[in-house]
Amino acid sequence: MSAPRLARGAMWFARRVEALAFDRYLVVGAACALVNNVILIGGDAMGFSHGILIALTWAIGCTLGYVLHAGWTFRQPRSASAYLRFMAGCALGVPIAWASLVVFAELLSLPMWQAAPLSTLAMIAYNYASARIAILWRRQSLSA
């Protein structure tokens, strides 16, 4: 096999591996979105405040997301430092989640069964970027 053909094959393989990681990300993201929506819709039906519900979705949904993304999506060993980075990234998304719920549920007066999925859609791009950075980020060695 010629070197250019081998290089093309390696490039194809690398793209396919990346595509599989994205496919796995979507499955995990859908599972976490389902959990978050159950918490939001069920909690709203039970009369919990939006603040409590956002805190619950952060604690439960993000922990579930870290475990599944580290072990399956990105196939990396779990560690306390990666978990803390992941949860910090998720915490940075809390204002986005809060703002989207305010817009959909309060300003637009949508029922939670509509507002929660719309809020979830607002978080997808942010969560993918923060998960990828948290799990794949490595400190560069100071020694060269």
TrEMBL record:
The keyword Ion transport does not apply. It is a multi-pass membrane protein. GO terms for cellular component: membrane. Keywords: Membrane, Transmembrane, Transmembrane helix. The chain crosses the membrane at residues 21-42, 48-70, 82-105, 111-129. Its main location: membrane. This is GtrA family protein. GO terms for biological process: polysaccharide biosynthetic process. Signal peptide: none annotated. It comes from Novosphingobium aureum. The keyword Membrane applies. Residues 24-134 form the GtrA/DPMS transmembrane domain. It is found in: Membrane.
